[in-house]
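Hi there,

I know you've been waiting on this one. I reran it after we fixed the sequence typo, so this is the corrected version. Both the input and the resulting structure follow.
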Amino acid sequence: MPRRGQAHDHAYDTETLQEKADRIRREQGLPSEANEGPQPCHWYDDGRGGRFLIPGCMTRVTNPDVDQCSCKSIEEQFAAARKEIADLKRSRAGLQNWHDHITRAVYDHADGIQIMKRAADLAGATEGAR
């Protein structure tokens, strides 16, 4: 087990920042950060009179005293995620359509079966090489 120094002895402290954050959260009865996900700007109260701004956006990083932060609301985050998913589905559908037309064109070619067999053999050889 690594040697732990006194609170003032940073040269021997091997606790990572994440371990320290997890330990403090446990001591205060708070859930782990892994369960919370990204958070907008918020103030953290250490329970001993200390209050610290945890910035979630560059607006607050550059100016902690600004009235409005630029963090997206959970609704805006969900809307952006839904749009990204819809865009990916459209892109995949377009690629699938293109793939289906190429495959049909190859099969319709006089040597289509041999071309597809050769492609399958090459794909198998590529998979085996990985």
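Quick highlight: The longest helix spans residues 74-108.

Best,
R. S.
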